[in-house]
């Protein structure tokens, strides 16, 4: 409303006009108040760039607070008035020679943030002076300013030898100056590796280790990170680093602890086995302590612990209990704790773990319950001696008759069958639940079990006949299983299934549109009608399958190594290499194109703004025009930006959904599933390559593992919806997942 | 590193927008609002869209958001956000929407100071308060170059947490040992998990630059002492001041405690602790958290709770909860609150207690039983009955755990004792030290 009114108002009135009047008032307090109001308007997203010249007039003041506000305004709008910025230069240069170190620092700090090309030329002198300032506070600020300058004009930064100056400053007596110099150098080094800005030599190493114990907590993180990136081959250096860094495990700041763990972990490889063992022991308690920090920090810590455990499975052997979920833990923490508990499960603590998991399986958060049940299965497959207890626990759970509990338990039991023989006795119990299963995954699992043990189930034929009856109403994934199971039954007991196999092959080839189902049916048909080698079908369909080794998701070793070097960063939280979510090359070709289009749109959005703003300086009609632009911007934004951020994943998922005949969920811009879907896609892609071979051998393997992978990942990004709703709508999400898999095979 | 810091209220209005880098554009505020605040499905504190990552924490009724464009250090980002909350609390008392709106100028000033180009700088409250102050007071200080020089010296120095010229007429140090005891007990009464998160808070009013040495009945330290022959026995000598009501015991008598892990304030010389487990430091002036520790062995549980909960059909739940104090009868706990969950469809409850008052709180789905003063050794019982209303879709009750909160003075669950606190200063003044112990309930949960 305000905007519309503003757009039609006479330019002589309105907020901007009032602010301007205040800014040029003859009373200091009125001017200051007007500046504050301007900043407030700026925060609210109003464009107050038209006031630039008036605000600028207030820059020469002795009031530090006011100066800071003017500087803040300058930083925000410098780009819209590059020419006028020059007017501020004089004040900056003067301030950088002020007797008060706070003001000197403020001047040099702000100068670096005014991203206007012309400013660069004036920065050289003040920067050079402040880098050699007597006050460490000014020096540490100037050090960071070099990084800012490099970002603006690398050439100028190199020509003037600022890099060399920074490198010298690593030897500064003040630890904070050292830390900031290292920060700036490492930023430059990462932005432009060819500069070789940050080279750790034995000499700098010594200085860094010295500064480590004295600087602020954040400085410690910087230094530790640098140390962790330092690759040495000298054993004594590695020993020295570990020795000096290990005390930092006791720091109160979790990020310092994680950085220290990272550094020691990476350098530990070089020191002798005995010593590295003690370091592993030493890092366990601090890691556990991280689990009692704030939930967000905890989450980061847990994701990192997960990585560490994949490399060193036994460091937290005795700490199972600390990972028990608290009732009030946020879901993302709970899910991660579950994964970690399974990783540290062993034959001594599984009793405790199972009791705990059973407790979780009786909670109400559906997603969490499913994961807990899955974890029981993972424990069973990981620890042979635990298997019987796990199966009993699962049977107890099936007896609760809670729909989703039963379904998940059956999927899990199927995996157990794939590893351990000897549990056929429970099959009748499972078959009793047959009518309750409505998820394709669970149906498929049960049918697989029936097919696999057809010779031991007296009424296998009847059970399967029921499924064949409604063959065309089933999900494709289930159809594939029915097909395989019936063929297995036929091969094992030809007398009973003669008619059934005919019927199902007929249904799958003649009445089915899904090429996967059809193709598999044809393959079976051929095999069965092969008269030259009557054993061919038997050898292929009933061949002995290799037992599965684990259902716990582990990262490929190469990726794991890479991620261990990224400990405590976002990459370690996502368990993805940084290239996948930072900067370019994140998407495929068309996504890049999309990004380019978006960038153009954005430029287009900015340019009229700049144009409008420029016009505003000239004079009269500007405010009006500008307000229009602003309105357009908003509309423009609301529509496009989120949509474009989502187009890709959204398209992919709903496409699949459409195929399988479930209603397509319309993605409102607000309701989107974030980039997590990209991961899913990626992963599925990877998986698709290896999957088909397994599928033809005996189907569910790939389905099961695939689902594990998927769920592992949705834990990461919390694909959303799984949690809250009533069962009916809640099952929507898992279904989608399954279809993803199915349509791939 | 960080590209920007944003603060939102619950409605998604942008209260603070501070960009540190070029790539933090105003439209990101809208994206965050749409993707996180108005999206009920988001359940992760980290969200990456495109190449922009939003990391947020929620405090009171505001969202504090860090925007990053690179593969940033996630632990550091969150820790920094929490530090910002802490700063806000110490500046404004309460860090909520109102405080942000009323103090936005000061917040911008703070943000300018504690982050430079997205890299965290000095975030020590005490130091910052010297030169970033609420209106009026400050101009006098900061406009004086010599004062500023001193301030900046401190803001960057090796002792960035302490001024050099502190003077007190009476030198005192107060040590509070505060333990949060966590318990998770299964329905069958076995202890699934019991541990202690302790913190030692110190209020130091000491002149000059005092070097402090702090001793606990830490088993490893005591073993060290025993191993090193002839090492002077410092036990009771250090406790010059009275008041430490726990009573100073000789080493032989005091049981020792195994600390699983300790974390120290940055003033503690970590190298020293690592080498011989001696806690030595130059304290900041005033109140600070000296250390945090964790203990998991021999945890003394102050309360034993026996809940019996029976669901009778679908219409009624019967409770009988007995709670017994498991500490010396000389002590007493205060503010004991027992929260007993009821099913979501509870219509009405009746309670009877042998002590204290019980009340049904429908909005929390709890029966809350409060006992203001709970003497050691006492045992109290509550019997209650919840009548349930009929529901159309019968959903099982999740039976959330029963939880307890209390505070108990002069008791430590871990058995930790302060053995000594020695203060060394050039001028060799004598100082008075006071020690206080308190145990509180952390997450004290009993399943049933």
Automatic annotation (TrEMBL), chain A:
Family: Belongs to the adaptor complexes large subunit family.
SUPFAM superfamilies: ARM repeat
Biological processes annotated in GO: intracellular protein transport; vesicle-mediated transport
Low complexity composition-biased segments: 688-700
Major location (coarse): membrane
Protein known as: AP complex subunit beta
Alphabetized GO MF terms: clathrin binding
InterPro entries in UniProt: AP_beta, AP_complex_bsu_1_2_4, ARM-like, ARM-type_fold, Clathrin/coatomer_adapt-like_N
Protein's job: Adaptins are components of the adaptor complexes which link clathrin to receptors in coated vesicles. Clathrin-associated protein complexes are believed to interact with the cytoplasmic tails of membrane proteins, leading to their selection and concentration.
GO cellular component: endomembrane system; membrane coat
From TrEMBL, chain B:
Composition bias, Gly residues: 238-248
Occurrences of domain MHD (ranges): 170-447
SUPFAM superfamilies the record matches: Second domain of Mu2 adaptin subunit (ap50) of ap2 adaptor, SNARE-like
Location of the protein in the cell: Membrane, Coated pit
A Gene Ontology term for the protein's cellular component: clathrin-coated pit
InterPro entries, per the entry: Adaptor_comp_med_subunit, AP2_Mu_C_sf, AP2_Mu_N, AP_mu_sigma_su, Clathrin_mu, Longin-like_dom_sf, MHD, Mu2_C
Family: Belongs to the adaptor complexes medium subunit family.
Record-given protein name: MHD domain-containing protein
């Amino acid at each position: 409303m305000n905007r519309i009114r503003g757009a039609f108002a006479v330019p002589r009135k309105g907020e901007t006009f009032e602010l301007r009047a205040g800014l040029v008032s003859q009373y200091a307090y009125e001017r200051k108040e007007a500046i504050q109001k301007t900043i407030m308007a700026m925060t609210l997203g109003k464009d107050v760039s038209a006031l630039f010249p008036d605000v600028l007039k207030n820059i020469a003041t002795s009031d530090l607070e006011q100066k800071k506000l003017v500087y803040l305004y300058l930083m925000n709008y410098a780009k819209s008035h590059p020419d006028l910025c020059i007017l501020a230069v004089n004040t900056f240069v003067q301030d950088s020679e002020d007797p008060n170190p706070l003001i000197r620092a403020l001047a040099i700090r702000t100068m670096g943030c005014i991203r206007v090309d012309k400013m660069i030329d004036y920065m050289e002198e003040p920067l050079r002076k402040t880098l050699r300032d007597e006050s460490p506070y000014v020096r540490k600020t100037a050090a960071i300013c070099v990084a800012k300058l490099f970002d603006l004009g690398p050439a100028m930064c190199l020509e003037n030898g600022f890099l060399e100056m920074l490198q010298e400053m690593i030897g500064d007596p003040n630890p904070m100056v050292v830390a900031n110099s290292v920060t700036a150098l490492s930023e430059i080094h990462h932005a432009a590796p060819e500069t070789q800005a940050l080279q750790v030599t034995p000499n700098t190493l010594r200085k860094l280790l010295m500064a480590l114990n004295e600087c602020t907590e954040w400085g410690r993180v910087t230094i530790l990170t640098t140390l962790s990136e330092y690759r040495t081959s000298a054993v004594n250096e590695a020993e020295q680093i570990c020795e000096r860094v290990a005390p930092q495990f006791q720091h109160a700041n979790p990020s310092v602890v994680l950085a220290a763990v990272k550094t020691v972990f990476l350098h530990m490889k070089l020191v002798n086995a005995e010593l590295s063992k003690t370091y592993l022991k030493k890092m366990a308690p601090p890691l556990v302590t991280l689990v009692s920090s704030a939930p967000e920090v905890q989450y980061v810590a847990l994701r990192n612990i997960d990585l560490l455990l994949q490399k060193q499975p036994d460091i937290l052997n005795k700490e199972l209990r600390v990972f028990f979920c608290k009732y009030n833990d946020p879901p993302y923490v709970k899910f991660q704790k579950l994964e970690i508990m399974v990783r540290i499960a062993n034959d001594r603590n599984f009793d405790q773990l199972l009791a705990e998991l059973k407790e979780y399986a009786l909670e109400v958060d559906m997603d969490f319950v499913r994961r807990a049940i899955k974890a029981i299965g993972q424990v069973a497959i990981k620890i042979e001696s635990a298997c019987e207890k796990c199966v009993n626990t699962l049977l107890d759970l099936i007896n609760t008759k809670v729909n989703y509990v039963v379904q998940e338990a059956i999927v899990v039991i199927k995996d157990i069958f794939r590893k351990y023989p000897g549990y056929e006795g429970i099959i009748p119990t499972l078959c009793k639940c047959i009518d309750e299963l409505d998820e394709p995954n669970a149906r498929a699992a049960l049918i697989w079990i029936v097919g696999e043990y057809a010779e031991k189930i007296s009424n296998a034929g009847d059970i399967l006949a029921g499924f064949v009856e409604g063959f065309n109403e089933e999900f494709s994934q289930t159809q594939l299983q029915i097909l395989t199971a019936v063929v297995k039954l036929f091969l094992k007991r030809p007398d009973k299934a003669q008619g059934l196999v005919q019927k199902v092959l007929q249904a799958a080839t003649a009445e089915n549109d899904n090429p996967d189902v059809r193709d598999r049916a044809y393959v079976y048909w051929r095999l069965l009608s092969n008269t030259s080698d009557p054993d061919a079908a038997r050898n292929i369909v009933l061949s002995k399958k290799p037992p599965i080794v684990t259902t716990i998701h582990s990262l490929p070793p190469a990726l794991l190594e890479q991620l261990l070097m990224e400990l405590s960063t976002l990459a370690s939280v996502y368990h993805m290499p940084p290239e996948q979510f930072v900067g370019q090359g994140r998407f495929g070709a068309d996504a890049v194109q999309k990004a380019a289009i978006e960038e153009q749109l954005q430029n287009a959005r900015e340019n009229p703004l700049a144009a409008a703003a420029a016009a505003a300086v000239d004079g009269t009609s500007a405010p009006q025009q500008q307000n229009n632009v602003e309105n357009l911007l908003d509309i423009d934004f609301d529509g496009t930006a989120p949509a474009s951020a989502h187009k890709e994943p959204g398209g992919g998922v709903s496409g699949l959904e459409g195929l399988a005949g479930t209603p397509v969920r319309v993605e409102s811009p607000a309701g989107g599933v974030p980039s997590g879907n990209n991961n899913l896609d990626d992963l599925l892609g990877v998986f698709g390559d290896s999957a088909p071979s397994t599928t033809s051998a005996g189907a569910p393997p790939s389905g099961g593992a695939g689902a594990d992978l998927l769920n592992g990942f949705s834990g990461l990004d919390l694909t959303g919806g799984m949690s809250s709703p009533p069962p009916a709508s809640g099952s929507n999400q898992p279904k989608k997942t399954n279809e993803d898999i199915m349509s791939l095979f | 590193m960080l590209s920007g810091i944003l603060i939102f209220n619950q409605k998604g209005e942008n209260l603070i927008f501070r960009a540190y880098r070029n790539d933090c554009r105003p439209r990101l505020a809208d994206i965050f609002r749409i993707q996180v605040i108005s999206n009920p499905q988001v359940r992760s504190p980290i969200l990456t869209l495109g190449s922009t990552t939003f990391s947020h924490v929620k405090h009171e009724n505001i969202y504090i958001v860090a925007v990053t464009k690179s593969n940033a250090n996630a632990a550091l980002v969150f820790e920094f956000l929490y530090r910002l909350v802490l700063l806000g609390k110490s500046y404004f008392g309460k860090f909520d929407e109102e405080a942000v709106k009323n103090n936005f100028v000061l917040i911008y000033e703070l943000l300018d100071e504690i982050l430079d180009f997205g890299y965290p700088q000095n975030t020590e409250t005490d130091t910052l308060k010297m030169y970033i102050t609420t209106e009026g007071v400050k101009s006098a200080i900061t406009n004086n170059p010599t004062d500023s020089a001193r301030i900046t010296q401190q803001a960057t120095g090796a002792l960035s947490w302490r001024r050099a010229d502190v003077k007190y007429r009476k030198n005192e140090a107060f040590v509070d040992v505060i333990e949060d005891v966590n318990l998770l007990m299964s329905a069958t009464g076995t202890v699934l998990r019991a541990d202690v998160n302790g913190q030692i808070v110190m209020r130091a009013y000491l002149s000059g630059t005092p070097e402090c040495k702090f001793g606990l009945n830490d088993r490893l330290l005591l073993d060290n002492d025993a191993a090193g022959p002839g090492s002077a026995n410092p036990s009771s000598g250090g406790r010059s001041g009275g008041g430490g009501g726990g009573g100073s015991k000789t080493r032989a008598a005091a049981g020792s405690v195994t600390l699983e892990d300790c974390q120290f304030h940055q003033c503690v010389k970590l190298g020293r602790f690592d080498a011989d487990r001696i806690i030595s430091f130059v304290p900041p002036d005033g109140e600070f958290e000296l250390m945090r520790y964790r203990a998991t062995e021999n945890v003394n549980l102050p309360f034993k709770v026996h809940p019996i909960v029976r669901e009778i059909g679908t219409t009624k739940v019967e409770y009988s909860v007995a709670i017994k104090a498991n500490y010396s009868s000389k002590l007493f706990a205060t503010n004991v609150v027992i929260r007993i969950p009821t099913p979501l469809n509870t219509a009405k409850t009746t309670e009877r207690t042998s002590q204290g008052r019980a009340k049904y709180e429908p909005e929390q789905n709890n029966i809350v039983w409060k006992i203001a003063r709970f003497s050691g050794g006492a045992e109290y019982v509550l019997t209650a009955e919840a009548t349930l209303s009929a529901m159309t879709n019968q959903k099982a009750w999740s039976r959330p755990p029963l939880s307890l909160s209390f505070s108990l003075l002069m008791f430590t669950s871990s058995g930790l004792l302060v053995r000594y606190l020695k203060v060394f200063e050039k001028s060799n003044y004598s100082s008075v030290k006071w020690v206080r112990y308190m145990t509180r309930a952390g997450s004290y949960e009993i399943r049933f």
